[in-house]
């Protein structure tokens, strides 16, 4: 599985409907399952981003399909970061010259 950290900001539409955000988060978790993606964590944050999500996807195409489907709903804009565990980084740096 590939891990991603998704940073989200509410759109104007998302802010107008912010009271529904927890319900939308649950719906997002269900949507993710249809792409074989597992939502590990969703947290609402103060500061530059409104929402931070950690996902595990079977591949990049599944993550991208989920991201586009979410964006099409119009409530959030996202920035997706590929994440690596300590074990992943150990392997990666082990291949360095």
CATH superfamily, by name, is: Dimeric alpha+beta barrel
Instruction: Report the CATH C-level class.
Output: Alpha Beta
Count of runs of 4 or more consecutive helical residues: 4
Low-confidence stretches: none
Order of helices and strands: EHHEEHEH
- Give the N-terminus to C-terminus distance in angstroms: 26 Å
**What's the total count of β strands?**
4
Instruction: Provide the CATH topology.
Output: Alpha-Beta Plaits
Average pLDDT across residues?
A: 97
Q: Outline the biggest β-sheet.
A: 4 strands, antiparallel
Radius of gyration: 15 Å
Features of this protein?
97 residues; alpha+beta; 4-stranded antiparallel β-sheet; 4 helices; 4 strands; elongated; GYD domain-containing protein; GYD/TTHA1554
Folded structure, characterized:
By secondary structure, this protein is an alpha+beta fold. The chain has a single domain (2-94), classed as Alpha-Beta Plaits (2-Layer Sandwich). 42% of the residues lie in helices and 32% in strands. The protein contains four helices and four strands; from the N terminus they run E-H-H-E-E-H-E-H. It has helices at 12-16, 21-34, 60-72, 86-94; strands at residues 2-10, 38-44, 51-57, 76-83. A four-stranded antiparallel beta sheet has the order 2-3-1-4. A hairpin with a 6-residue loop joins strand 2 (38-44) and strand 3. The longest helix has 14 residues, at 21-34. The radius of gyration is 15 Å and the shape is elongated. The two termini are 26 Å apart. 16% of the residues are buried. This is GYD domain-containing protein. It comes from Bradyrhizobium hipponense.
């Amino acid at each position: 599985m590939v891990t991603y950290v998704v940073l989200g900001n509410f759109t104007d539409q998302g802010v107008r409907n912010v009271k529904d955000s927890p319900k939308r988060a649950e719906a997002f978790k269900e949507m993710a399952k249809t792409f074989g993606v597992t939502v590990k964590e969703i947290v609402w944050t103060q500061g530059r981003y409104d929402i931070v999500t950690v996902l595990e996807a079977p591949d990049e195409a599944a993550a991208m399909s989920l991201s586009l489907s979410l964006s099409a709903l119009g409530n959030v804009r996202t920035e997706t970061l590929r994440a690596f565990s300590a074990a992943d980084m150990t392997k990666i740096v082990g291949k360095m010259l």
